[in-house]
Amino acid sequence: MPRRTSRTALDRLRTPGRLTGFLKSASICVLIAGLLSPLAQTASAAETAAPNDYCGGQCSDILPPGQNGNATLAQILLNQAFGTQPDHAEDQLGPYANLAKGYPTLTSSTINTFFNDASFGVPSDQVASTLSPAGRTDVKIVRDKKTGVPHITGTTRYGTEFGAGYAAAQDRLWLMDVFRHVGRGQLTAFAGGAPSNQGLEQQFWRNAPYSEADLQAQIDNAVAANGARGQQALADANAYLAGINAYIDASDSGRYFPGEYVLTGHKDSITNAGTIEHFKLTDLVALASVIGALFGSGGGGEVNNAISLMAAQERYGVTKGTEVWESFRERNDPEAVLTVHNGESFPYAGKPANPQGEALPDAGSVSTEPLVHDPTGTGADQSASAASATATANALTSAKRGMSNALVVSGKYTASGHPVAVFGPQTGYFAPQLLMLQEIQGPGLSARGASFAGLSMYVELGRGQDYSWSATTSGQDIIDTYAVELCQDDYHYLYHGTCTAMEKIEQRNSWTPTTADGTAAGSYTMRVWRTKYGPVDYRATVGGKKVAYTTLRSSYMHEADSIIGFQMLNDPDYVKSPQTFQSAVQHINYTFNWFYADSTHTAYYNSGDNPVRASGVDAEFPVWAQSAYEWRNWNPATNTADYTPPSAHPNSIDQDYYISWNNKQAKDYTTAPWGDGSVHRGNLLEDRVKKLVAAGGVTRTSLVKAMADAALADLRAEDVLPDLLKVINSSTVTDSTAAAAVSKLQTWLTAGGKRTETSAGSKKYADADAIRILDAWWPLLAKGIFEPGLGTSLYTAMQANLPVDESPSAAHGPTGAHAGSSFQYGWWSYVDKDVRAVLGESVRGPLADKYCGGGSLGACRDILISTLKTAAGKTAAQVYPGDDVCSAGDQWCADSIVQRTLGGIKHYNISWQNRPTYQQVVEFTSHR
Questions:
Q1: Are 713 and 753 in contact (CB under 8 A)?
Q2: How far is CA 811 from the centre of its chain?
Q3: What does pTM read for this prediction?
């Protein structure tokens, strides 16, 4: 039976996908002919100047699948019927995909075969169109021929931001509308009741159950707290919204609005009846809450941590069990790869010497707080229940989607003497893409790069006049779990000794079938109980007392605050040095690692509002909701507190090089997700960049090659398989099945251990058998090594903290299948440390016990050979069982990257690469 592909929240989003039957029942040619209308506003070509560009043609970038994320109904129908693509909808997918086989022969002259020139401006012979949106005379939107990226130039600040909003709606209106409804918990009512849509709105609304008043309060507070910059941000946002709404009006009257509005029943294709709702300021906060929850809110998982700790203590006793648990937690593993690697310490969220206030649940008492109530129809069926369970697990885990990587080398080690950077966010693959490109030039604004759709009043990741910046998700813990003692009933709790009512927040959604989503009618109510300590996520007893476990996040009710930092990054009069760059990103409360390069300097800073915890509080576990254990100077009315100062955040200027792939930031800086140990995908970058720096003469070409080589590497093969084979080969392998498997694995390892096609477009892997064997072997060997020693209960509980595996084809975990990003979460360090210990090798930060074969080399070898033989006997169809994209046994397809449809346009899948979605390659040649 084909497997049910597990996906991330965004991967599960359901938009037009039931068009086949509709097309069969309609005369498509007649329908398309009747729907054809002006698809874009045109104007004469004109040159846009390149202002103050100090990159000297050495800035490049790419964002697949293409800039154009809007399609009319006619274009959607043509795509579904014949595979035709709107202009610039798919033209970046090929160059992006081709790097996987093209990087070995890359030269400086061929970089822009795989990337695009990211210089400011558009040469006159490359101008495709020039538009004065809504007839304004203070702004022009110029689009280039090659990519269709909007280059927005304004003579007034208002006009510039109006143009940015208009261009955003031109390229991503439908996507923006989808995500404002996701952020408001109203997706099913807007786009249909498919189980995937139910799961998506539930996941995000559980973490950010905001009322309209809450959203408005965020705006008011952000403006009030930031003086002139706050007022400017408000003016910019209003101008941006005016541009979006002007495009809505123009496309509605001109009938070239996105066709998804027809397919989901919001507009009539014949009469044009129906409404596309204007955007408002609170929609932008709803959008920001989704992005912040996805990529910038580290922490959580304290209840799961408590459950696994208690399982360890039950297995081994309190003292030994705690030792075992801590060794697997790897809070400050001495073998972990670091971004700040000069030995500087930045203590945060470490284990206190004498923990205070812990509120661990009584064994077996924990239950998840239900979100869905009063379901009817398809809101109550088995698929809905499964979607709800997955959404709950994703919302409450600490193993959140991390993604993104960065390679930055100081000019001291480059051929030119100028720093070189290759970096970008790994935000998944969607159609249309979550990010969009633009250049924005106006008073106080000068930048080019990527922004999340609907939040592009500023460039969020990109380049300025003489500097570039990017980010990776950091994951340090800004979320704590509190045990509130109940009183009176299940909906009252003690706050500072007073029995206080919880606040009930509800969202009622209902849906009916549409052309896009034929899910039968259904409905439900989402209900969240809020306390001063945040929303309720679990119920339990602690020492026999009934409690609710709540989740308090420092960015809760503050998603709008980060706008100030992004405003500063776009301001050429503010960012002029690594120090001013660091100052800008200090205003961003999302948990990110920020990287910077100009012609002379590099820099790094870890952002986020890190709360100052009460003395003795261990951030790993729930604590009592009592004043003694609250964040210092915490004000529940505003959810503000004391935060660690900028100097306490990992930061650096002009280190020899920086790498980041969501690894540990610095010594003594504990992040919320598990897995910062001896083997991390960050090692794939560290090893390659360190080698380049040691040799010197680093170039854009060599750094891109290092990134692209790491993007094809199987982390398990490169960093763990050699030691596994050492154990197996510690004596002669006499079993023919095992010997054949070992030979194949060794041959693959000698060839580099990469998951790469035999030739470009072959859709077959070189060393396919070895890859199949390792994919089948890894979960078997992990279980064989650890379950006998840990016991089934503890082994299972630990997997709730850290999944065992995340291969490219894995349909489990926070990333899911066909998403590109791989090897972020897994038991690689555990296997590595344990096998090295059994081999008698030196291990810093070892596990508390030796597990493989109980520490016996011979017994360990028997386990590995036994599980290897089982793995070798599994067919490709068993290892890659097929899904809604791939047939069973198709290994290449199982790994392949799919642009998940968030609209009506579909794209082809591409060969696997583990690299940023949007990526810059920069080397500035001069400075202001």
A1: yes
A2: 16
A3: 0.95
